[in-house]
Amino acid sequence: MQPSLSSKDSESEERKRLEQRQNRFAKESTTEINKSTKSVNKPNDILIGTCEKLEKNYLRLTSAPNPPTIRPLAILEQAFPFVLNKYQLNNDWSYISSQLKSIRQDLIVQSIRNDFALLVYEENARLALEMGDRDQFVQCQTQVETLYDSGCNRTHLMEFLSYRLLYSLLLGDCQRVSRTLIDIHAEKISSRKSNEIDIVLDFCSSLRRKNYTQLFILYKSLPRRARCVVDFFIDIYRKQMIQIFIWGFTPTLPIDIVTNRLAYNSNEIYKFELELNSTEKERIFHCSSPVELHKQRAKLTVSIEKPIVTPPVFQLQTEQVNSTTIRIHVIPNGYIGVNRIHCHWDDKENYAQVVDLIIGGFLIPNLMNL
Q: How far apart are CA 195 and CA 165, in angstroms?
């Protein structure tokens, strides 16, 4: 049975209405997208701050930046030397860190990437190095590299290339090391200033050849802030050298060898500190009651399991952590070595542990098992 003409007409009209409706929605959505794109890309929408405060603590942005809370370039150029001068007077790292992060934030939200921005990142990187703030140094070093590539003033390029080379090599980033060496070679040809960078290159060569004796000699000759870069990693290589010393000088070795060969400053090592415990990983001896704590503390003595040719002299220090906990420090004077030390609280209790050597703030556990 053939469909009637009226039904065909109604179907065609319905199809036309559907197509018109789809076209209308497509046009409306396209118009909205174009409007939103135009509004985002308008040059007039570039943020320019209106805040006039020279000091402003850093706060993480949780919403779109608001011009009254952002300082324009002219104010930032005044704020930067102001906060640096104040830092020279109070020497407060938390203050200058917050202020510089706030200045960097204002630069970023206003898309300011010029020589002044480079100056801020360079100085922030230097201060972070001096204070041992690795995270801030890495953030600023990355921005410095980007700003150099964008054509900003390259007066201090060689300085920051040396930092990049040292950090990349010590981190084990071989590809970055290769690229940095190419940049250094090109800069040396153009600037002909190579005294400090040559020392850095010699240091890196000793590190790659694992010539640690030469490494620590060159470490003392590095520029001050280049040494700060190395200080992020130096304890790794000191540990390796101490392990070699232990094998070569067993059972003990003079402290002078450690301080001289591993480039310690005289004021860097006040004591070799050893914390002994019974079974706790935290090296804390636990008592069952405050009375027992007092009793144990009064009777604490230390002895060495194996007598050695030149035995170290031990001093004991106890620190009361809380009402039932003592932390025990055993300080050997004059020599360090690997031995088993016993802690005696009375005739019935005897706790022993292999010496854990602590030098300059880092720990080498269980050297007898090396």
A: 16
Cβ distance 295 to 282 under 8 Å? no
CA-wise closest residue to 162 among 116, 230, 263: 230
> Distance (Å, rounded) from C-alpha 121 to C-alpha 137?
9
Cα 304 → chain centroid: 39
Token duo for residue 334: 């004059």
Domain boundaries, the chain: 67-235, 274-369
Q: Which of 282, 261, 258 lies closest to 360, judged by CA?
A: 258
Q: How many CB atoms lie within 10 A of CB 115?
A: 12
- Global pTM? 0.65
Q: What single letter denotes the amino acid at residue 115?
A: D
Pairing, β 357-359 against β 362-364: antiparallel
* CATH no., domain 67-235: 1.25.40.990
Residues 191, 195, 197, 202: is their CA dihedral positive or negative? positive
Six-digit token pair at 244? 């070699």
- pLDDT at site 195: 76
pLDDT in tens, 309-366: 444 444 555 566 665 555 555 554 444 444 444 555 444 444 444 333 333 333 333 3
- For the segment 28-64, what is each residue's pLDDT rounded down to a tens digit? 444 443 444 443 334 456 889 999 999 999 988 888 8
Burial class from Cβ neighbours inside 10 Å (0-12, 13-18, 19+) for residue 273 reads: middle
